[in-house]
Amino acid sequence: MYHDFNYKMTLATSLRAQWMLDDVLREDQDLDFSRHFLPESLARTAVVASLDGDEQRILNQISAHQYLSIFAIVEEFILPFLIDHSRTALHDDDDWRVRALLNFATEEAKHIHLFKRFHAAFVRGFPVECRVIGPSEAIGAKVLSHDPLAVGLVILMIEWMSQSHYLGSIRDDRDLDPLFKSLLRHHWMEEAQHAKLDTLIVEKLGAGLSDKKIDRVIDEFFEIGSFLDEGLCQQAHFNMDALEQIIGRVLPNRADIISQQHQAARWTYIGSGMVHERFKATLEGLSPRAAERIAEAAPLFA
Ligand SMILES: [Fe+2]
Ligand SMILES: [Fe+2]
Fold first, then answer.
1. Ion ligand 2, residue ranges at CB < 5 A
2. Strands (DSSP E) along the chain, which ranges?
3. What is the pLDDT of residues 234-251, one digit of tens each?
4. CA distances, 188 to each of 14, 142, 183 (Å)
5. What is the mean pLDDT of the chain?
6. What distance in angstroms lies between residue 196's CA and the mean position of ligand 2's atoms?
């Protein structure tokens, strides 16, 4: 498949684009809880008609707490995947590849640190505890038990989705917290290079595989997707518990809101990556049948 990047160029761009944690959020900085945190394209809270404006903002913030938690969980399985893959690069005498992959891993470790720092700021300013699915080690172990190419494709989908998350935050005309906007922007700045490196990883893992083998890999891609989706469903219940605790009433249409918010999460954490043109192009290069199967499933996550 044609593309115009390689390990050397991508490493150089990565090193120029790097930022420090304090550029995004200092440890003593507080989030502005009078504002929305996530763009409406992700949170889909402005359409929940049974909530008033303040309650919609609180649900938006709970959805942002979910964002910090889910990204911390996924980055925690991306990191060991990269370390394992970097080890295989030590033997092939390509210094640019080794350095680019190790730099990629270092940046993901920094992202975990950043998401935890935002999470701490959230907990400091939010009136109730928001429960989170987990533990992250168990989720990571389950994902990593799958074929490395299936895991690589899931990670590639996640890298590209961070672009549509950033674009959503600049298109949103509501009063978004500038620190959250900055989080989405800085994350994408580095993910843009990760997506290229992950494309190279997927191409390497997929080289020379038979159609039958790739079909099995796509089965495993869907197994990982279903597993993550079950977690998102459970998380939607936890989110509603937190909302009801704050507003002090049980919502009569609780099940409807959970279902609507679960669908918003499906789009945020799965669908927005599945339909990304660059992700689809990599799938086409791997196997047109793989691209077709994933395109057929995409409407479920819209
Ligand atoms: Fe990341
Ligand atoms: Fe990444």
1. 191, 194
2. none
3. 999 999 999 999 999 999
4. 12, 26, 8
5. 96
6. 10
